[in-house]
User: What shape does this take?
Amino acid sequence: MICNALIIISVSLHVTSQCHQQCYLSLEVPSARTGISVLILARCLTDLYLCVCVCVCVCVCVCVCVCVCGWQALMTVNARLRDLYPESDEMFDIVLVTNNHAQVGVRLINSINYYDLTIERFCMTGGKSPIGYLTAYMTDLYLSKDSKKVQEAIEAGIAAATMFTLERENDLSDSQLRVAFDGDAVLFSDESEIIMKTQGLDSFFEHEKQFANKPLAQGPLKCFLEALGKLQRKFYSKDERMDCPIRTYLVTARSAASAGARVLKTMRSWGLEVDEALFLAGAPKGPLLQKIRPHIFFDDQMFHIEGAQKLGTIAAHVPYGIGQKYHRGIALQPSPPGH
Amino acid sequence: MSEIKPAEVKDASGEERDWAAAKVFFDNLKSKRPRPPKSCYAVTIAVSSRTLFDMTMERKIYEDQGLEKYVEYQQQHEDEPLKPGAAFPFVKALMTVNVKLRQLYPDSEELFDIVLMTNNHAQVGVRLINSINHYDLTIERFCMTGGKSPTGYLKAYMTNLYLSKDSEKVQEAIEEGIAAATMFTPDMEIQLSDTQLRVAFDGDAVLFSDESEIIVKQHGLDTFFEHEKANENKPLAQGPLKCFLEALGKLQRKFYAKNERLHCPIRTYLVTARSAASSGARVLKTLRSWGLEIDEAIFLAGAPKGPLLQKIRPHIFFDDQMFHIEGAKELGTIAAHVPYGIGQKYHKGQLIEKTGKTK
Assistant: This one.
């Protein structure tokens, strides 16, 4: 199977008429064995009345406005990969996954053609959850507006995140794909975060110093970073390191001197690299992300997501780890990962 | 899906309370080890790795053998702490001031905050972290940009001063309106105070704009004197380092408020080549109009700055003219060049061709 050049699309929707309800569009496409599939769940307002037990909507005029920047960046990456490796299948592959009714597909196809996106693979599950298909299609990253589906995907071991719509957006690069990751509970497991929340900052610092040489366990998005790294190395081996169209960032609230060494050593033990590492020691992430301008930023804590969004960064929430279960300033019992 | 919406809505507000609670907890994390202050209150000083530590040998490996060998070398010598660099005494002195500020104002966030801003590769970070811990510096904020210029992040951190060995980056920062200077290592080491931070500034084109210097260079000294006398009461425009002096003044006033003026651990000096009688009044009146104070003002009327600086022993001396920097360096003063204004086009009074600066 030859995978076509595909891209990440974040779908933001505008309502052009008064009445609106929501229905879930997810287009799922089988992913090639060697491609990186990005499954997107687009929640949009449609004017179809669907008599499906799960999904009920009312007709509404909808204008599907696609964020083209991320798309162009991925197109650029794929174009350059094809230039350097004409025979290879290793590139981005985008799949649209929806539990929508099949008839909605016509409108989706028309919209996709209108914006000139090359998404050839669809899967319309007509009401059923698409999670089962994700593993079958070797999905590397699943993006959805529905946090329940995202949680299911994470429990199934697939990198996934909940996307949010922005009120305003920064100008993004269309020649370089930029992906920013949080550290704990995104790339790494939430073990350290559990210590911080249950025993306080001092125990956390001591623990990290003591185990500086013991790698952290992996988090839900480690495999996606690995996949990006694999594509990056294809550029490096052709001497394109300075001009690589993929750039990865680690933006963590950790303190460098007290807790930073373990993070860097863990990445080294996995054989993974990030291009830029920013240790914030508690400073707000928003302003720095505004400078970085990633096409997507993954974090597990909602207040970081909100801070990023306020300044125009596209943020995706990873519902994993102890950061999700927090009540009135009191730490809850450490919960099993992914719940 | 709409059937379950009402339940979702109720849940959503509960979830939002949880998220808000998580944020409050995060913001109020306390520890015995001092936490870095919030950028908006603190005086943020960004230093590059080559100014904080002496990395001349490593730099040579990078230039001769390339990036991969350099990273490999750094990883092999990870547990060897790096030797102190030009900005090291300055950073140590800042830490001393912070300790005293925390004693007087335990809950205040108005402190010095030091950020390491380097375009080094992330893996080199381990050696930097180990070195920082070896000298017991509290530098918790890092930006390792892996090759890209870090000047973009300076504004995001609300940087008050940026020190680097790379003059191109410093120039970019100054053009963005951030106080910045290129550091030079002195030729000999002199003993510096470890109880008092001492910062020395040049006047024109450092604290003040270069308007007067333009007159000196283009029309000569007499015109300059006349101009200064005529405009004595008109404040000079501000220069790139005025805001840093302002930030230092703000912290000094915190000590004065607690009756510590005589033992204030921050001391500022103005070391200018201006002549006091002919052109000094305008300088002092300008500072007064800005509400800024300087502890010592030295008018040299052309005498060399080197010997006086040797007596002052500042942790850092800012000047815009390279020959002053060189004079200071020769006698052991840590000097930082501010690449601003017309002084960049001249050397020892002669107009030079602008040469491309190499890294």
